[in-house]
Structure formats: structure tokens, C-alpha cells
Amino acid sequence: LHANGPGSHAAPMQRSLKQTLEHVEREALISAYGKYCSTREAAKVLGISQASVVRKLQRYGYSIKGNSQL
Question: For position 3, what pLDDT does the model report?
Fold first, then answer.
């Protein structure tokens, strides 16, 4: 796979792999929570624990109100 190899017109990566994964994780969490309005439902859809959803949302700057609401 040569996304930035010879002949490629793609811009060089501007984020590290860690930053890219964090961005994707954040977007998935926000999307799931926005769609289901429940950390429990978001967790179920994402295949992770509800506690992980809460912890990760908090890490990304969201405050959780109640046990399952953002």
C-alpha cells in the first residue's frame, strides 16, 4: 500500500497514528451518543462497556449528567 508513494497525489499525513485513532474514536462515540442519546445504547452499538463510553466521552471533554445521559 503506497498512499503517499511515487505517483500518489495524496497529501502527506498530518496526524500521527495515535492522533488519527483518537479522532476516529471520538467521532464514533459522539455519533453513537448523538444517535441513541444514551451511553448504554451507544456502548451496546459500539461493543464496549457503558463505563468505557462515559470515561472516553469525559476524556474528550464531555460532561456526563446522570448515569446514561451526556
Answer: 53
